[in-house]
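User: Could you go from structure to sequence for me? I need the amino acid at each position, not a summary. Structure tokens:
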């Protein structure tokens, strides 16, 4: 199962978001074999960037570990609104 988390932050705070995301990703990388991915929409809208964190092959304790790691960052103060978390499973089309 994969987890996708997206949130918005002021385009003017991009450097700070990147710094805090590096911290979060490093903390999460210590717990997972696969490295998390970070993406951003190519353009801003209304002065905001939309960011996407992607975690592959998450385990049942993923949300608890993410919450602990997230609390060690300053992302909450940089975000505008809520973080949205969604899960998707891979579908084998060859079966």
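Assistant: Here is the amino acid at each position, in order:
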């Amino acid at each position: 199962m994969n987890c996708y988390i997206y949130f918005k932050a002021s385009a003017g705070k991009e450097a700070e978001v990147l710094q805090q995301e590096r911290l979060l990703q490093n903390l999460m990388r210590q717990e997972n074999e696969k490295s998390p991915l970070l993406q951003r929409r190519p353009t801003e809208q209304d002065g905001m960037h939309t960011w996407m964190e992607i975690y592959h092959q998450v385990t049942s304790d993923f949300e608890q570990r993410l919450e602990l790691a997230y609390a060690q960052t300053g992302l909450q103060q940089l975000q505008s609104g809520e973080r949205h978390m969604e899960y998707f499973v891979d579908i084998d089309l060859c079966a």
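One structural detail worth keeping in mind: The chain has one domain: 2-86.
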